[in-house]
Amino acid sequence: MWSMILVLVVVAVFVFPSYVLLHYYQNAHTDSTVVRQQESVQKISDQYNELLQKTYKFSQQAVLKKSSHMQVADLIFGYAQSGLVFDAIELESEDDGIILVTLRGRSSSREALLAFESGIKSNPNFEGFEIPIDSLRMQNNIPINLTFAYHEE
């Protein structure tokens, strides 16, 4: 009987406190893990929202840039008479609001090329448009390779 009491005392003195401490440690550790996980989720959520805002701003800028490029292209094509064929048109934005324009193609006649030049030069936003003299010497099937600038208002 004394041995049974001794076993109960040992269990009560050594095992029970160990169990209580282990249970407390597990709960405390679980709570701190949950808090760290919540903090991590919040941090990731904040970073995601920041990235989403930057992406939105970038896409807005891209749309605005594209729309200004489309306006310049519309102006250029509006000045092009029949007889002009463009193989390539490149529009490149500079930091100071200037769009560099490069045109490549052919003009069926000198008159069509001169009419195009007159239209472009009538717009004060276009600058640096010059037809090479060698091109002006030709009468028909004139290659076009022009670079000039457009200043946004």
Task: Describe it.
The chain has about 150 residues and is an alpha+beta fold. Helix content is about 65%, strand content about 25%. The chain contains three helices and four strands, in the order αββαβαβ. It has a four-stranded antiparallel beta sheet with strand order 1-2-4-3. It is rod-shaped. The relative contact order is 0.10. The model has no long low-confidence stretch (mean pLDDT about 75).
Topology:
Layout: H1 2-79, E1 84-93, E2 98-109, H2 110-122, E3 126-127, H3 133-137, E4 140-151
Antiparallel strand pairs: 1-2, 2-4, 3-4
Summarize the entry for a quick read.
This protein is α+β, with helices and mostly antiparallel strands and 153 residues long. The protein is built from three helices and four strands.
Number of helices: 3
Q: Going across the major beta sheet, what is the strand order?
A: 1-2-4-3
Please bin the fraction of helical residues.
Answer: 55-70%
Integer average pLDDT:
75
**Low-confidence spans: pLDDT under 50, at least 5 residues?**
none
What does the overall shape look like?
A: rod-shaped
What is the H/E string?
A: HEEHEHE
Instruction: Briefly note the structural class of the backbone.
Output: alpha+beta
Strand segment tally:
4
Radius of gyration: 38 Å
In terms of DSSP E residues, the strand content is 15-25%
Major β-sheet profile:
4 strands, antiparallel
Distance between the termini: 103 Å
